[in-house]
Amino acid sequence: MKITYFGHSCFGIETAHHRLLFDPFITPNPLAARIDVDEIQADYIFISHGHEDHVADAVHLAKRTGATVVAAFEIIEWLKKQGVDAAQTHPMNTGGKWTFDFGQVQMVPAFHSSSLPDGTYGGSPIGYVIQLSGKTFYYAGDTALYTDMKLIGEQYQIDFAFLPIGSNFTMDMYDAMTAARLVNTRTVIGMHYDTFPYIKIDHEAARSLAEKSSIDLHLMPIGGT
């Protein structure tokens, strides 16, 4: 399994047979200026909620790659109005599970808000638990810390988790360490940090906190794999 970071909360995951992309926000992100969005390939695009910093390139990438877009029902309806082919969409909602050709996906709650760039209601914000190539991981989306995360850790063996750590709009690094314990994983890939002044973090302080918490924290460079 190969994981590539495209900045903010956007990651690509590639296996021998499948390519998954999460929350595509690349072209408006100055920190991702060297990423060519037209070189990104995807078979599936997963969207956690409707804010622009998670959907900015979704329409373009869906049309160009033909990827199946998985998102809340309301976001799927909005994407279809933007010209995304209904046949390449898969609407879901909180708590739902579906088995795709690569493995199982469950939508789990996220405590945040969700509206599309034009103000359209984006449904409930969500995260994903995905089983892929013998691994199970949690992509939290934008969320606050909430105690029911422990149910994820009880239901699944989470190998690693993508967690927001930038604070202000989401949980911070301290809450992310608690979230890692709740979902019962020791491996965290940080996201939703540094992109805007509100969410800049001290990298060394974050790594020090993770070490003290016995968490293997990855702060990936943009474009890094």
TrEMBL record:
The protein's matches in Pfam families, at most eight in alphabetical order, are given as: Lactamase_B_2 (PF12706)
Domain of life of the organism encoding this protein: Bacteria
Entry keyword set: Hydrolase
**Where would I find the Metallo-beta-lactamase domain in this sequence?**
7-192
Q: Decide whether keyword Hydrolase is in the record.
A: yes
Q: Which InterPro entries match?
A: Metallo-B-lactamas, RibonucZ/Hydroxyglut_hydro, UPF0173, UPF0173_UPF0282_UlaG_hydrolase
Q: Which GO terms describe its molecular function?
A: hydrolase activity
Among SUPFAM superfamilies, the record links this protein to: Metallo-hydrolase/oxidoreductase
User: Would the keyword Coiled coil turn up in this protein's UniProt record?
Assistant: no
Entry similarity comment: Belongs to the UPF0173 family.
Q: Which HAMAP family match?
A: UPF0173
**Record-given protein name:** UPF0173 metal-dependent hydrolase HNQ92_005684
